[in-house]
Amino acid sequence: MNKQLRQIMLAALFTLAGIGAASAQNIVIKGSTTVLPIVQATLEAYMKMNPGTNISLSGGGSGEGIKALMDGTTDIATSSREIKESEIALAKSKGVNPTATVVAIDAIVPIVNPKNRIRDLTIDQLSQIYQGRIINWKEVGGEDLQIVVISRDSSSGTFESWAELVLNKAKVTPRAQLQASSGAIVQAVSKNRYSLGYIGLGYLDKTTKALTVGGVPASAKTSISKEYPIARPLYLYTNGAPKGEAAKFIKFALSASGQNIVVKEGFVPVLDSAKTPIKGKK
Amino acid sequence: MNPETQASFMKWRYFRQSVFFGIVRLAALLITVALLGIIVFLFINGFRAVTWGFLTLPPTDSMTKGGIMPAIIGTFYLTVGAIAVAMPLGVVSAIYLAEYARQGRFIRLIRVGVNCLAGVPSVVFGLFGLGFFVVFLKFGSSILAGSLTLGILILPTIIGSAEEALKAVPQTFREASLALGVSKWRTISRIVLPSALPGILTGAILGVGRAAGETAPIMFTAAAFFTAVLPKSIFDEVMALPYHIYVLATAGTRIEQTRPLQYGTALVLIALVLGIDLIAIIIRSSVRRKKRW
Amino acid sequence: MFQTANTKSTLTRHLREIIIRKLFAFFAVISVLLLALIVLFLFRQGIPLFEEISVTQFLFGSAWYPTYNPPEYGIWPLIVGSLIVTVFACLIAVPFGLLSAVYISEIAPSRIKEILKSVIELLAGLPSVVLGFFGMVIVAPWMQEFFDLPTGLNIVNASFMLAIMAIPTISSISEDALYAVPREFKEASYALGATKYETIVKVAIPAALSGISTAVILGMARAIGETMVVLMVAGGAAALPRSIFDSVRPMPASIAAEMGEAPFQSGHYHALFATGIVLFLITLAFNLIADYLSNRFKEEGSGTL
Questions:
Q1: Cβ <8 Å between C131 and B38
Q2: Whole-prediction pTM value?
Q3: Where are the beta strands (DSSP E) in chain B?
Q4: B133 contact partners, CB below 8 Å, separation of at least 6
Q5: Residue A38: which H helix or E strand, with range?
Q6: Is B185–C20 a contact, with Cβ atoms under 8 angstroms apart?
Q7: How far is A199 from A219, CA to CA, in rounded Å?
Q8: Is-contact C129 B213, C-beta < 8 A?
Q9: For B41-137, where are the E strands, in sequence order?
Q10: Residue A181, min C-alpha distance to chain B (Å)
């Protein structure tokens, strides 16, 4: 009795595996939590036009997307930072050729709790705070409160961009609280009047207060004109030029309707009003 | 000791006992309050979200609307897969340990091995699953990799409860069967196993509950933030209830707005897991009461 | 002719028995093999880290910056974080677990006993992500408001949630230990005029001590290996804590947070596996000690009278 049962189960497993090998998901997308809202909204619109496409989406951070691309476990890697030289080398050694497509422009905005009186910080002040050298709000003109520094995990592209543009690659203080996503930083800062965090432009809402940097507010205009110092492109990386279903999806993301979605989510479209693509770094 | 001191000493001893018993009862009460408190909090904040639509529709509008149906299905597939891996392996191992094994170093080694497997942290299983099933065996992030990882995770539970169930079958059954000339294997398969079946089933149900609730082993072996359609093959990624709670609460795009759904998902998950555990407990106690030996 | 048929069928029967026995033994061995496979894999993926840095630098280095250039892989703050939340969790869980075990095995009337045992078993079944969610969304904001703290995601919060996970383990194993104390011990105590309290505290608990220690150690192993709770609730700061209201980053939280982004075979990848090795060795040590203690506790029965 048991033997027959086991035989049946084995047979079932093999048949499943056989079917399985034929049809895994058409598009797998992994990576940045900053780009996530854009991709998710684009996905939903794409699905309406192409029902039945089997797409799987995950966040986790730009680093995860790039790693997945290298390991061959994703078709599109979304990233809010440029791929590193070391990563390109590692990818090439595995036969993967990361190719970038810029899907939007983003600004990283420092945010504080709405109860905080501060309205502006310079890049240098931000850098000192994140390195743990300025530890009290009164040192920058605020109340006598300890500054609770909130940052992102090392997997985050937002973190890498912040580290490069604001800290100049200096180390973030180990006392920083680490959150897993821009959304989580919004949540943490909105509840904590001691805190300071940074998020992508698309995550700004009423629960947190955006600071100006050196007097410049973050917006689409100041990002494109480079007046706002902490702006960066958002990338979609593929192995070689995009092919197949992934190519169709990326084409949709770059189309007028796709870019409308980018604007709706609060980011800066790649095509400006003159309909010319804004060149990001490759 | 004179009678008065003796009497007052007695009084003090009983007073001390009442205090101790009071503390003990308080501890038991607080534990119950903790369990009920957590369930009640989640229920109050979540029941509004759990509608029929919530359970049967996929998420829409950046997860702020719609439901969690793909996550329920995903958890179902992963759990079934885990049991498919752990049950055959676990029950057969338990039969060996309980029926065939002779005392000695060999057996002690296996038992120590099973105990240590039980103690491995779930994140280490996740690391192993990622490195071995996903990358090395090239299964990719998939139901297959996730089920295998979860299966190994619950294997010690299955072995433990199956062995206990087998040991609970009275020795007289076996002796009677063997005395009648029945071979050992027939004795086991026709007499011992059927008697132990409720216990083995209970263990399987508890294993299901455990597999359904684990997050770390599936984070990088099977789970995805969002899948557009239901999985079509065992090489697909899936959404899963525990992972869904985690991502919505920490990595989602609209954390505050999806909060009701987070509570709802948490409520669905604990309803599922506690419901499964409760069924196991009830089966076990009703079997115990019915036992005629 | 009757005799030949008999011998032939007994022979095949015997052969079948041997095959089944060997086959089943093989299956049982697979569990050990799986453990060995996990250990092997962990070590194979983690050891390459020590070509870059030494074991002491890894274990006692105080800076965890795996993605910088040059990367630093010191996990001392992570280890301390793990130890601190485990210790605090046990400070809460051991009294509750032990007292509830005493209640169940000695004092409770039988209906309450059944209910309480079910409560504890259900508590054991609570998924860790739900506890992490609860701690993050309900306890943390409350704690932050109430104590006016910089953050509610800290050692205290994590310890409480971990304690809830450890209590069922400690309670059920202690209960088994107390149950196994021979009735003769307790009857002798009552015969000498001891109250129930005195019997429990001076006879039953000491007799069950090795079982209770097993329970505590397994509870500690559970707490130190727990991932989702510390990932969501402990705060994530990879620094040595200065107060119990500081955030920490226990090892499992660090692994889970960074597992997905370390490219296969990179230095970071090896560092995470090496952290996994440390975690695994610690829980292994706990389990082996518990195993040893529980074997000793089996020997102390009425046989020792």
A1: yes
A2: 0.86
A3: 59-60, 65-66, 226-227
A4: B139, B144, B145, B148, B149, B221
A5: helix A36-49
A6: yes
A7: 13
A8: yes
A9: 59-60, 65-66
A10: 5
Angle at A129 between CA A125 and CA A130, to 5 degrees: 120
Residue C125's closest CA among C175, C165, C90? Answer: C165
Instruction: Out of B34, B116, B135, name the one closest to residue C264 (CB).
Output: B135
Answer whether C276 sits within 8 Å of B112, measured CB to CB: no
End-to-end CA distance of chain C: 60
Backbone dihedral angles phi then psi of residue A252, each to the nearest 5 degrees = -65, -40
CA nearest to C288 within chain B: B116
Determine the distance from the C-alpha atom of residue A207 to the mean position of all C-alpha atoms in its chain, rounded to a whole number. 20
Radius of gyration of chain B from its Cα atoms, rounded to whole angstroms: 25
Measured over the CA atoms of residue B209, residue B212, residue B213 and residue B219, the dihedral's sign is: positive
Q: Shortest CA distance to A26 belongs to which of A59, A50, A62, A60?
A: A50
Chain Cα centroid distance, residue A221: 21
**C286 against A221, higher pLDDT:** C286
Write out the two tokens for B13.
């001893």
Strand partners, B66: B59
pLDDT on residue A106: 87
Q: How far is it, in rounded angstroms, from Cα C305 to Cα C302?
A: 5
Six-digit token string for C86: 């485990």
- Tell me the per-residue pLDDT of C109-157, one tens digit each, with 9 for 90 and over: 888 888 898 899 899 989 999 999 999 888 988 898 888 888 888 999 9
B130: exposed, middle or buried (C-beta count within 10 Å: 0-12, 13-18, 19+)? buried
> Under the phi-then-psi rule, with left for phi > 0, alpha for psi from -120 to 50, and beta for the rest, what region is C103?
alpha
Q: pLDDT per residue over C201-255, tens digit each?
A: 888 888 888 889 889 999 999 899 999 999 999 888 888 888 889 889 999 999 9
Q: Determine the distance in angstroms separating the CA of B100 from the nearest CA of chain C, rounded to an integer.
A: 7
Contact B63 A186 (CB under 8 A): no
Q: Kindly state the tokens that stand for B165.
A: 């169930």
A58 and B CB contact within 8 Å: yes
The residues in C 191-220 lying below 8 A from A, measured between CB atoms, are: none
Residue A174: CB atoms within 10 A of its CB come to 17
Q: Which helix (H) or strand (E) holds A99?
A: strand A98-112
CB-based contact (8 Å) between C42 and chain B?
A: yes
CA distance B240 to A232: 33
Question: With an 8 Å Cβ cutoff, are A153 and C236 in contact?
Answer: yes
Chains near A, with 3+ CB pairs < 8 A?
B, C
Q: What is the arithmetic mean of pLDDT over B238-242? A: 92
Count CA within 13 A, CB hemisphere, residue A156: 26
Instruction: Work out the angle at residue B19's Cα, subtended by the Cα atoms of residues B17 and B21, and round it to the nearest 5 degrees.
Output: 65
Cβ of residue C121 closer than 8 Å to a chain B Cβ: yes
Distance of CA C132 to the CA centre of its chain: 17
Q: Cα–Cα–Cα angle for B70, B76, B80, nearest 5°?
A: 150
Mutate which: C23, C67, C155, C275, vs A, most A CBs within 10 A: C67
d(C-alpha C158, C-alpha B280), whole Å:
30
- Per DSSP, A202 falls in state G
Q: Do C258 and A180 touch (CB under 8 A)?
A: no
The angle formed by the CA atoms of residues B121, B125 and B126, to the nearest 5 degrees, is 115
**Res. C199 pLDDT band, cuts 50 70 90:** confident
Q: What percent of chain B has pLDDT over 70?
A: 98
Does C283 contact B242 at a Cβ distance shorter than 8 Å? no
CB-neighbour burial class of residue C113 (10 A; exposed 0-12, middle 13-18, buried 19+): middle
Identify all chain C residues contacting A66, using CB atoms and an 8 Å cutoff.
261, 263
Contact A58 B88 (CB under 8 A): no
Question: In which element (H, E) is residue A237 found?
Answer: strand A231-239
**Would you say A167 and A128 are in contact if contact means Cβ atoms under 8 Å apart?**
no
